[in-house]
Specification:
CATH class of the largest domain: Mainly Alpha
CATH topology of the largest domain: Outer membrane efflux proteins (OEP)
CATH architecture of the largest domain: Up-down Bundle
Radius of gyration: 38 Å
Order of helices and strands: HHHEEEHHHHEEHHH
Number of domains: 2
C-alpha cells in the first residue's frame, strides 16, 4: 500500500512539475491590450457585423436610384403596310419616375438603416472587447493563484525543515513532518485543477482571437488595480448618449418614421415617360419620313385598401420600435446602476483586503510559525494559519479580477472605455 501511495505521489508530483514549468517557462507575457487588439482585428463576429454595415451603406444608393429604363424593339416586316405607308422597325424607350420626394425619403430611410447597422457593428465590437477582457481577467487570476500555490509549497518546505529539526531534537512528533507532505499533495492537486481551468480559459480566449483552440497562450501580464472615480450621473449620461443599443434603437425609430411617410406617399401616382421612334420603308409613292412619338403614363392608385393596409402596417411597426427604444432606455438605466454599484462594491472589498485581511493573515502566519519554532504553538495552528494565508491571497486576486470584470461590464453598458473620457468631458455632461 505504501509503495502504491509513493508511486501515485511521484506521478502527481511529475505532472505538477510539468504544469509549473509551463507557467514559469513563459518568459514573455500576453498583455491585455495585445489580446484586445488581436480580437478586434481577427474576431469573425466583428468582421461579419462590419460587412453587414457596409452592405447597408450600399442600399442607400439602390434606394435613391431610378428604376432601370425599359427598351423595346419591333420588327413588322417589309410587306406589312399601314395607312401612312409600310412600317418596318420601331424602337421604344421608357423610364419610370416615382412621384417627387419618394426617392429622397427612401434614401433617408436607408441611411437610418445604415446608421443602425453601424451601431450594431459597434455593439458587437464592445461585446467582444468585454468578453476578451473577462476571459483574460479569469486567466490572470488562474496564473496568480498558481503562483501563490507554488509560494505556499515553498513555505511548506521551510515548515517541513523546522518540523524535522524539532523531531530530531525530540521537541515534536514525526507526525508533524509527515503532515507537511500531505499538505503539499493537496497543493499539487490544486495546481492540477488550476491547470485544467487554464486550458479551458485558453481555448475560450483563442476562440475570441480566432486562433486554434489548443494554441498556447503565454502567461498573462501583471496588472495594477484600475482607477475609478466616476459618479453614477456621469456614467448614466455617457450610456444614454453613447450606448450602441440605444443609438441603434433611435435610428430604427427614425427609419420607421420615414417608412410610414413613404407608405402615405404611395397614395400619390408615379410617372412613366416613353419615347418611340418609327423607321419606315418606302411605298409606291416614294420614301416615307420616319416618325416619333412621346408619351406620359400615370399609374392610378385606386385600390385604397392596399395602401391603407401598408400605412397601418408602417404605423404599427413605428410604435413597436418606439416601445423597443423606451425598453432599451429603461434596461440601460437598470444595468448602469447594477454595474456601477458592483464596481463600488469591489472597490470596498479590495480596500478591505489591502488594509486588513492580507496583512493580518500574513502576520498571523508568521507569528504562529515563530511560536511553533519556540514550542508555544501546535503544528496544527501553523497549518491552519498557513491555509488561511493561502485562502486570503487567492481570494484577493479573485476579487482583483472581479473588480476588473465589473468595470469591463460597466464599459459594455456605457458603450465606451471609461479611460477614454477626460474629466472635462465628464463635467460637461
Amino acid at each position: 500500500m505504501k509503495k502504491i501511495s509513493k508511486i501515485v505521489a511521484l506521478s502527481l508530483g511529475f505532472v505538477v512539475a510539468i504544469c509549473a514549468r509551463s507557467w514559469a517557462g513563459e518568459d514573455a507575457a500576453l498583455s491585455l491590450d495585445a489580446a484586445v487588439e488581436e480580437a478586434l482585428h481577427n474576431n469573425p463576429q466583428i468582421q461579419s457585423a462590419y460587412h453587414a454595415w457596409k452592405a447597408a451603406e450600399q442600399r442607400i444608393v439602390t434606394a435613391t436610384a431610378l428604376p432601370d429604363p425599359m427598351m423595346g424593339y419591333t420588327y413588322t416586316g417589309e410587306r406589312t403596310s399601314a395607312r401612312d405607308g409600310a412600317m418596318e422597325e420601331e424602337y421604344e424607350i421608357g423610364q419610370e419616375i416615382p412621384f417627387p420626394g419618394k426617392r429622397h425619403l427612401a434614401g433617408l430611410a436607408a441611411r437610418d438603416e445604415s446608421r443602425g447597422m453601424k451601431e450594431n457593428y459597434e455593439m458587437v465590437r464592445r461585446e467582444v472587447i468585454r468578453q476578451t477582457k473577462s476571459v483574460y481577467y479569469d486567466l490572470f487570476w488562474v496564473d496568480q493563484a498558481a503562483a501563490i500555490v507554488n509560494d505556499q509549497k515553498a513555505l511548506l518546505q521551510d515548515l517541513e525543515t523546522i518540523a524535522l529539526r524539532r523531531y530530531e531534537t525530540h521537541q515534536s512528533p514525526q507526525q508533524d513532518a509527515l503532515r507537511t507532505n500531505l499538505e503539499k499533495q493537496e497543493l499539487n492537486e490544486r495546481l492540477l485543477m488550476l491547470g485544467q481551468q487554464r486550458k479551458s480559459l485558453q481555448a475560450r480566449l483563442n476562440s475570441l482571437l480566432n486562433r486554434p483552440a489548443d494554441q498556447p497562450i503565454k502567461k498573462t501580464d501583471e496588472m495594477a488595480p484600475p482607477t475609478f472615480d466616476y459618479s453614477l450621473d456621469q456614467v448614466m449620461g455617457m450610456a444614454n448618449d453613447l450606448r450602441p443599443e440605444i443609438r441603434m434603437a433611435k435610428f430604427s425609430v427614425s427609419q420607421a418614421e420615414k417608412q410610414t411617410a413613404l407608405a402615405k406617399m404611395d397614395l400619390l401616382p408615379d410617372f412613366t415617360l416613353r419615347y418611340n421612334y418609327i423607321d419606315r420603308t418606302t411605298d409606291m409613292t416614294g420614301p416615307l419620313e420616319d416618325a416619333w412619338e412621346g408619351m406620359v403614363e400615370i399609374n392610378v392608385p385606386i385600390w385604397f385598401g392596399k395602401q391603407r393596409a401598408q400605412i397601418l402596417e408602417a404605423q404599427a411597426d413605428l410604435r413597436s420600435r418606439q416601445g423597443s427604444l423606451q425598453d432599451m432606455k429603461n434596461k440601460t438605466a437598470f444595468e448602469v446602476q447594477e454595474a456601477y454599484f458592483m464596481v463600488k462594491s469591489y472597490q470596498d472589498i479590495l480596500s478591505l483586503y489591502n488594509v486588513s485581511l492580507l496583512p493580518q493573515s500574513e502576520q498571523t502566519y508568521k507569528i504562529t510559525k515563530i511560536g511553533y519554532e519556540t514550542g508555544s504553538n501546535d503544528f496544527a495552528d501553523v497549518i491552519d494559519a498557513q491555509r488561511k494565508y493561502l485562502q486570503v491571497r487567492v481570494a484577493y486576486y479573485r476579487a482583483f479580477a472581479d473588480y476588473h470584470q465589473s468595470i469591463s461590464m460597466l464599459e459594455g453598458v456605457v458603450g465606451r472605455d471609461l479611460k477614454d473620457f477626460s474629466r472635462s468631458e465628464e463635467g460637461g455632461r
